[in-house]
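Minimal example, chain plus adenosine monophosphate.
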Amino acid sequence: MDNCIFCKIINGQVQAEFLHQDDEVTAFFDARPITPIHVLVVPNKHIASVNQLDTSNEGLLGHMIMVARALAFHFHLKESGYRLVINTGPDAGQSVYHLHLHLIGGEPMPFSVKK
Ligand code: AMP
């Protein structure tokens, strides 16, 4: 996608420090971290959001989670804990319409999805 910031990062037009890249996904630090560790795991192929997924993407989603898990372990978050978050659409605050999984951790987080 011509105007997609994450496509530009993946293809090297915009600089980011890659933490991982393979045939399917790229991972890099979030430019505006909300926790000490804040990584984005992004499919190399442009998919706007969870809304555009279908069953053919199940393997990709599993791979995104396993890459995020490996990075969580790399950053010593296994015991302290972490969140994996995919914001979808306006009410969730999605600001970049290229699917991405946030890995956040490194300090206690102030809210929970538990009620
Ligand atoms: P979301 O709000 O879930 O769509 O998350 C988009 C994330 O992308 C935000 O946390 C931004 O800080 C991050 N972001 C936007 N532009 C860049 C960039 N050029 N490099 C790294 N992270 C970025």
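The longest helix spans residues 58-74. Residues 5, 14, 16, 30-32, 40, 87, 93-96 surround adenosine monophosphate (CB under 6 Å).
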